[in-house]
Amino acid sequence: xxxxxxxxxxxxxxxxxxxxxxxxxxxxxxxxxxxxxxxxxxxxxxxxxxxxxxxxxxxxxxxxxxxxxxxxxxxxxxxxxxxxxxxxxxxxxxxxxxxxxxxxxxxxxxxxxxxxxxxxxxxxxxxxxxxxxxxxxxxxxxxxxxxxxxxxxxxxxxxxxxxxxxxxxxxxxxxxxxxxxxxxxxxxxxxxxxxxxxxxxxxxxxxxxxxxxxxxxxxxxxxxxxxxxxxxxxxxxxxxxxxxxxxxxxxxxxxxxxxxxxxxxxxxxxxxxxxxxxxxxxxxxxxxxxxxxxxxxxxxxxxxxxxxxxxxxxxxxxxxxxxxxxxxxxxxxxxxxxxxxxxxxxxx
Length: 348
Hints:
Oligomer: single chain
Shape: globular
CATH class: Mainly Alpha
Distance between the termini: 26 Å
Number of strands: 0
CATH topology: Glycosyltransferase
């Protein structure tokens, strides 16, 4: 599968997200004590993180880039250009998620001076320094602090050592929770795929060896959400991509994507266990059941497309057949993202 085909999967996914943009809007309960952040701030923060990455890995003149730009602008407006995040931080100074959400916007140059001043004050407290967190969340906070220009309160290497992935565990101990944990460790280490060289060599080697069987298992079980996150990890590692793994994985994942562009978190979709015309894990407009996996599809696809942009492998469609309008990769210009051509393992 070539970069253009994987990018087509991203375009379809982001088109679905755009159609459901209003479902990401914050309601009146965004600042309420009884509000559930998993249905308010969490989707909006994920939208911002993914759109920043898509913008970074797409050309400014393309519909994909423009959609990501418009969605990021929408998400920023939902926060009142940062005002609501500032209020949230003052209401819950002990919470870390406002900082993590704000960092996505800050990485795109969208700043709020009052929020950053308040966050910096809280980050100097003893409580912030010693808050007990899951090790992968600690990495996320350290990366967020860096985006705000703070001095991270702990070294990334030390934080990595305390994660499941940092311990290079026995590969047969991999299961769902470990999978979601390790993917986010890589997202935070690489700043959502921007700096592959930040992955230590021993971790990169470990993942290069064990990602293929883990991914195959998740695809076989039709766990599309985790499969996309693992594909995003594959696209965030230094060095050349495993083209065989990517070709097979994206062919299978494309079958699960509905005509609307939605990808279910789990379920038969249009996969190997279901008829070709079967719906993808429920109604295409099932926002709660599809939004995260569809965002992760777009996220993984743009990272993969960058990794494959010089690939000369066989281009395939969702049915596993050669694309009828495929051009040899060498006849098309190398992909240039918003920050220039991406060097694998080279700092931007």
